[in-house]
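Forum: Protein Structure Q&A
Topic: Joint prediction for protein chains with partners

I've read a bunch of threads here and the consensus seems to be that you should model interacting components together rather than docking separate models afterwards. I'd like to see that in practice. Below is the full input, 563 residues plus whatever partners are listed. Could one of the regulars post the assembled result?
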Amino acid sequence: MDKGILVLAQNLPEVNYVKQAELLAMSLQATNPNVKISLVTNNNVEFENLFDNIIPVPWNDDAENSDWKIQNRWKLYHASPYTKTIVMDTDMLVLQDISEWWKFLEKYKLFFTSKVYTYRGDIAKTSYYRKVFEVNNLPNLYAGLHYFEKSEEAQDFYHWLELVVQNWQAFYEIFLEGVTRPKHISIDVCASIVSLILGNASNITNSLTDYPSFTHMKKNCQGWVDSSSNWQDRVGFYISRDCNIKIGNYVQTGILHYTEKDFIEKSPVIERYRNLLNV
Amino acid sequence: MKSKGAFLIARNNAQIDYVKQAVFLAKRVKKYLDIPTTVLTDSVDYLKTTYDETVFDRIIPLDYNPQKNERVYFDGALYQKQATFNNRARCQVYDLTPYDETVLLDTDYIVSNNLLKQCFNSQEDFLIYKESKDIAEVRDEQEFKYISDTGVPFYWATCVYFKKTKTNEIFFNLLQHIEEEWDHYRRVYQITSSLFRNDFAFSIAIHIMNGFTKGDFAQEMPGKMLYTTDKDVLEQLEDDKMMFLVEKKNYLGEYTALCTKGQTIHVMNKFSLNRIIDKELSNG
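Posted by a regular:
Agreed with the consensus. Here's the joint model:
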């Protein structure tokens, strides 16, 4: 198959990532009806026909006892049924036609988003969350939205990613200064370490382009003075019957990374997409 | 040849003589920008009997209609007065200006160079300041970045350039609507104070013109908006030179002297500005 979106969802007792993936698939169907989407999961899927493929997590579940479910992320390259794949986090919504993004990505074998936006459309200042990247001069990669084409370059990257993910403490010790070293595994940090090892940051990112990217709704990168509350408590979320979305006073486009786990329960977003698509 | 000019609005309240400021600014507009000035005022008789009306190209009368829009005006860090904020006429400027290209100015914007002349060479139809700088450099400038913490970017209605275009007509009509329905809009845009402010109304209107997203309806004026707040004092003014006493951080009532030359500055302390103008007028 030519191209498509790939998502990994592994539920936790308190978070239904499959449900998030279903919502993502609905948003994709609303805005990009011809784009395929596959889901990698071992969990039950309620709305199977939203996906072109439902693929079991390959080679056992390396994250069975983990709260972060990062350990299987390197398998996505091997699991993808597509020649050209955009990998997305489950807690994202696609709010516009992204066909131009595919055209842009054709120039790359591997591409990572390296700058993200606030709901106001400003470049998000993510220092609060990304001190480890700044202090250790890591490439500022966001694995939550990245692209690969089945190729030698991408395969090489993912082989290294497998190695780093499976030995993350050892790599953290080598590449990250002690005080900044996270105590848990992060796929963004692992991917950035791989990029550092391969010296390919300039080949897999593009600082001049505004997109592909996403709106990152983590509260401490919105440019607010008062970031004490979750974003859903600070600004209004509005979704129209035809699923146009506003956050605060801003119409949202592109990809919305809503991040807060209770977003699906707190907002009428699933109901609106189901009504629109007759799902 | 397209006509060009400045447009001022002067509506006095019990404490502040804006007409005096307008007369003073019109002279400076002529000197530094070499363009005529029109004034819209509800004090035409006062203007004509008290000041030299010939500094204006046109004087447009405005009905006297005092508002219930009270605010506190400081005169330096330690002294303050309550007065009416008669600021609801700006949306009429599009219809009233006699010029094809207009620079709309607050009367406390002390033009001291020819930077604004660049507007008239611009390809853009609507220019306004978003970027600004507090010349004291010690105060938090966040309130001039966004109209509220979670809201839209702050634009300064103090100094606006516009051409007569259909789009700008829509903008000014929208501005009028926002003004009329201020209590609704200020809630929708998370503004806690009920005080009507033109800066806020312009900012909201620009956001709407941009389709509720980051857009390019409004382009940046040349340079940056330089300002001092009403906690500072304008102490001296001579041609393009000004000397301010700017408040010291964490030392209430203490000031640092700061001199500028050739800088156009928004002087928010209207009392000290009027004292300086009085000196100028008494010196002829």
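Chain A has eleven helices and twelve strands.
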